[in-house]
Amino acid sequence: MSAIPIPTAETALYDYPKYWAECYGNAEFLPVSRAEMDTLGWDSCDIIIVTGDAYVDQPSFGMAVIGRLLEAQGFRVGIIAQPDWHAKGPFEVLGKPNLFFGVTAGNMDSMINRYTADRKPRSDDAYTPGGQGGARPDRCSLAYSQRCREAYPDVPIVLGGIEASLRRIAHYDYWQDSVRHSILVDACADILLYGNAERAIAEIAQRLSLGEDIDTMTDVRGTAFIRHDTPQGYSEIDSTRIDRPGRIDNIVNPYINTQEMSDCEKQRRNAQQFGLDASGARIIEFTLPQKLDRNRTVIRLPSFEKVRNDRALYAHANRVLHLETNPGNARALVQQHEGKDIWLNPPPLPLTTEEMDYVFGLPYARVPHPVYQGVRIPAWEMIRFSVNIMRGCFGGCTFCSITEHEGRIIQNRSQASILHEIEEIRDKVPGFTGVISDLGGPTANMYRIACKSREIEAACRKPSCVYPGICPNLNTDHSALTQLYREARNIKGVKKVLIASGLRYDLAIEDPEYVRELVTHHVGGYLKIAPEHTENGPLSKMMKPGIGAYDRFKQLFEKFSKEAGKEQYLIPYFIAAHPGTTDEDMLNLALWLKKNGFRADQVQAFYPSPMATATAMFHTDKNPLKKVTYKSDRVESVKDPGQRKLHKAFLRYHDPNNWPLLRNALKQMGREDLIGDGKQQLIPGEESEQQKTYNAPRRKNSASAHQRRTRGKKILTQHSGLPPRSSR
Questions:
Q1: What percent of the chain shows pLDDT beyond 90?
Q2: Model pTM above 0.85
Q3: pLDDT confidence of 242, banded at 50, 70, 90?
Q4: Confidence band for 11, pLDDT divided at 50, 70 and 90
Q5: What is the per-residue pLDDT for 7?
Q6: Same domain, residue pair 435 and 556
């Protein structure tokens, strides 16, 4: 009998050989109890997914996507949702898995889910039945992995999801105000999957089922693991240091393979690198070494100990990591942690349209598991009538981690697949009234937008395709999306298709016909967009376009709204206290808001999420968007609680509760001219304050408390059981 072929990264998701247990067929819901396993005729589970979210069998929830994908491969998959983490017993309820535990914190980072941007505990959790807080531990992935290890010490643990993905190397932890290990060091897990993990999880499951040991799986893209040496045949680039001011230290040229050089050769190369001969005299000739094979090259980052103690090195490591995010040219990375090497393979290859259709076409029940007995799960209620049409984002906003998690190459579903899902929502989801609440993803309008050249795309290392301006190689044609909107709203039983995902308005203005279609048919009175700021200082640190792009979009929005005979409004969002923002920047933003008649009732303060570029700015006061040196220009970050409160107060200049704070700040800034009752003044003086009354703005269909704060967490509301879900 011929051997079963071992799957590889090039194997399409739907081409894997089926595991023997496919004979059991598909379950209506993946089992959460032994009783359900008995009903299905299972004596054991092959794979058990442990998740920090309630189990909702819908493709916006990670445990459902991964579970259904593995089920389609023929494996028996069980779910342990929100277990009590204080003992190992709840992790034994389904018995011992035959292949592995898959552990995820859920669709959100557990720390951002639990704490506000001011580090205050929240009382609610949208991914828990009844919206109750406290159903998952802090640093959920760590606690779950440790309990799985206690329950069954010999069972492999595969760690994934947004929480693990953004902690795959040494990272700044905002809640402890310190640099923590890669989560893999602390979690007792065998391997970590980051980014879109369908390819990796399918390959690992197949190889484990064929008897391979998980410790040998060091060639899977999109994975991190512990290893003790660089394998034979690899060239190692040393990127553990940056130039220091003053005397130039002897360091190894980072493009030399240090493993294959003698000490004498290293010294000669070091001297030659800086134009000196062996005696220190300057020389003229310098020959570059032969170009290294990217597929057999690893970049050594500064160690955990170094980035913990040296903020410039932390910023440098962050910059290198972000330069190695394009799956077309990324190299492996390695970082030492107290004698252990954390090895990160290059990012996963994007899914093809056919594979995306396959994943989203799996037999989801589209509702929460019956074990919850109809108790509301707020996160599901918010997205149950929405459709995810794509993944990824090439915007590169520094406060957002979509690129690090989902990648910058857009992964699209076919129009037929999307329309079929709308029909399934119409026919299966209870409470459907004919309104699709969203067709989107990380952004509303990157569907089928890509680089004009695959070769250029594969070689590009730019962090953004749209900053500082739209790349000339980017195709900005929105016609495929416009056609999708038209087909979607013509489906029988569909009364309205709304667009709730954030609109990339600088892209939209490149295609006025798309804006016309959007404004005429798909705006429910209000359209959310995110200029984030008006001033160039913070905008340059965010990698966001200038306010002029917003003004041009606003003109088109108002023009097409008037032509359609509709009264519609833009709702712009802004960030307070982002790195690079001064008090004067916030003052100018407040004046712009007043001039344009905006009274923000939703205030978003910068939240330093793990691994984001803006978080590196916040922690190090350096700018990783440029080459990092010890003499780099300082990036001012708002860390003092009083100053953060002031920046938020500027966004709500109209709230009388903020007037005393703003009045004092304006006096200190020498801007007392802005205190008074004139049209050009920002806040009233003390003598007229008592005569003023404050009425909070009311909006039809205003967002719930959860929706208001969820927008501020868009970088982490990803579909993230093991692969990511596009943010809303």
A1: 81
A2: yes
A3: confident
A4: confident
A5: 56
A6: yes
- Cross-strand partners of 497: 436
Contact yes or no for 571/524 (Cβ under 8 A): no
Among 37-41, 308-312, 523-527, 722-726, which stretch is predicted with the lowest mean pLDDT? 722-726
Domain co-membership, 211 together with 248: no
Q: Where residue 282 falls among pLDDT bands split at 50, 70, 90?
A: very low
DSSP code string of 632-654 = PPP-----SHHHHHHHHHHHTTT
| Shared-domain flag, residues 403 and 519 | yes
Q: What is the residue-averaged pLDDT of the chain?
A: 88
Residues 391 and 506 in one domain: yes
pLDDT digits (tens, 9 = 90+) for 552-564: 999 999 999 999 9
Asked if the structure places residue 662 within a domain, the reply is no
Angle 62-72/198-209 helices, nearest 10 degrees? 40
What confidence score (pLDDT) does residue 692 get? 57
Q: Does an H or E element contain 81, and which?
A: strand 77-81
Answer yes or no: do 23 and 133 share one domain. yes
Q: Do 531 and 449 reside in the same domain of the chain?
A: yes
Reported as a single tens digit per residue, the pLDDT across 589-639 is 999 999 999 988 778 899 999 999 999 999 999 999 999 999 999 999 999
Better-predicted residue by pLDDT, 529 or 1: 529
Structural domain contains residue 136:
yes
CATH number of the structural domain spanning residue 418: 3.80.30.20
CA dihedral angle for residue 252, residue 254, residue 256, residue 258, rounded to 10 degrees: 60
Q: Is the peptide bond before 90 cis (omega within 30 degrees of 0)?
A: no
570: how many CB neighbours lie within 10 A of its CB? Answer: 20
User: For residue 703, which amino acid is it?
Assistant: A
**Are residue 191 and residue 61 in the same domain, yes or no?**
yes
Residue 159's alpha-carbon distances to 62, 192, 195, in angstroms, are 13, 5, 12
- Of 344, 368, 403, which residue sits at a domain end? 344
* Helices 583-595 + 641-651 axis angle, to 10: 20
Q: Report angle CA 261, 265, 268 to the nearest 5 degrees.
A: 145
Distance CA 346, CA 457 (A): 16
Nearest Cα to 9, choosing from 221, 155, 161? 221
Q: Are 106 and 51 in contact (CB under 8 A)?
A: yes
Give the structural domain span for 208: 13-219
Q: Are residues 182 and 273 both part of a single domain? A: no
Q: How far apart are CA 121 and CA 714, in angstroms?
A: 19
Helix 479-489 vs helix 512-521: crossing angle, to nearest 10: 20
What is the DSSP pairing of strand 223-227 with strand 340-344? antiparallel
In a domain, 337, yes or no: yes
pLDDT digits 0-9 by tens, 171-181: 999 999 999 99
Query: Using DSSP, how many helices (H) and how many strands (E) does the chain show?
Result: 26, 21
Confidence of residue 67 (pLDDT cuts 50, 70, 90): very high
Question: Is residue 664 one of the residues assigned to a domain?
Answer: no
Domain count for the chain = 3
Query: CB within 8 A of 70, min separation 6: which ones?
Result: 46, 47, 77, 201, 202, 205
